[in-house]
Write a structure and sequence with these properties.
This protein has about 80 residues and is mostly helical. It is about 70% helix and about 0% strand.
């Protein structure tokens, strides 16, 4: 029998897609605002490495929260199985 708690449900996939879109949108908006306000000389190699790493860590933290939320939503509301007693 398959353990269904390990699969991503529809709500969790929607939340993951929304979270990913939001993080990518913020990253691109910040990149564009830096290009417009400070010019291309602001976009250095360190910038191009550090920003995606920081945003990637934030994205991964959000994925962990979404997985926790999805598992919590699929848990038995009556608690753990007590063997039928």
């Amino acid at each position: 029998m398959a353990d269904h708690r390990k699969t991503w449900g529809r709500e969790a996939r929607k939340a993951l897609l929304g979270w990913t879109s939001w993080v990518v949108g913020c990253f691109l908006a910040m990149l564009a605002s830096d290009l417009i306000s400070e010019g291309p000389e602001r976009i250095t190699t360190a910038y191009l490495i550090a920003r995606p790493v920081v945003f990637g860590a934030g994205w991964f933290g959000g994925v962990l929260v979404i997985r926790w939320w999805a598992r919590r939503a699929t848990d038995d509301p009556d608690g753990a199985d007590d063997g039928g007693s």
